[in-house]
Amino acid sequence: MGRVAAWARQAPARPRPAARIAAEPGGREPPQPPAGAPGHPCLPLREGQEVTLSGEPWEVLWLPGHADGHLGLWNEAQGTLIAGDAILPRISPNIGLYAYTRPDPLGDYLQTLGKLEALNPARAVVGHHGPVMTGVQARARELRAHHHERLDFLQAQAAQAPGTAYALSLAMFPRDLNISGRRFALAETLAHLEHLRLLGALYRTWQEDAGAWVYHA
């Protein structure tokens, strides 16, 4: 990837055909923005801020879990939530622990589900299987129950057969998965294990021979 980027920086720009330039109004190339200049200014948003879209006020909500910086937009008058991937009607958003994420993404997500349940929007604009879903409150309860089932499973599994996060991911996701799918499965298993550890329901011990943490009761 680095060699490709280096080549791209060094390679000369492909000249545009004269016939194409002549066909444009005035026969000249349109002006180009300065290199590296953003098309529009980017402003960070924080929970509780209000933004105006199409003349309507929207409150910024922080909905972490699927991603640390996941935001939603809430219009109380319309009962509409722009939810992104915070909640989905047919699948569970992946809640994974990675090297660069907050330490307890599942704990974050359970709080997000509580927020969505209390908000009880009439409709939500979602990232997949949408674009609009209803029944957000009921779906939030379903997803909470789903994650508690996985927590119960992993707690019992680690008590019966202590193992690494990878070994326990094979127990929780036993079907054949491609490399990308197994990566998501491992990250999700790790998020659940670390949530249990932070609650004091599981422990972990470093095993030098395995070069990994082993989770146990």
From TrEMBL:
SUPFAM superfamilies for this protein:
Metallo-hydrolase/oxidoreductase
Biased composition regions of type Low complexity, renumbered to the chain? 1-25
Q: Which residues form the Metallo-beta-lactamase-like C-terminal domain?
A: 159-202
Q: Residue ranges of the Metallo-beta-lactamase domain?
A: 4-128
Sequence segments annotated as region (Disordered): 1-41
Q: Which InterPro entries match?
A: B_lactamase-like_C, Metallo-B-lactamas, RibonucZ/Hydroxyglut_hydro, Sec-metab_biosynth-thioest, WH-like_DNA-bd_sf
Against Pfam families, the record matches this protein to: B_lactamase-like_C, Lactamase_B
Domain of life here?
Bacteria
Q: What protein is this chain from?
A: MBL fold metallo-hydrolase
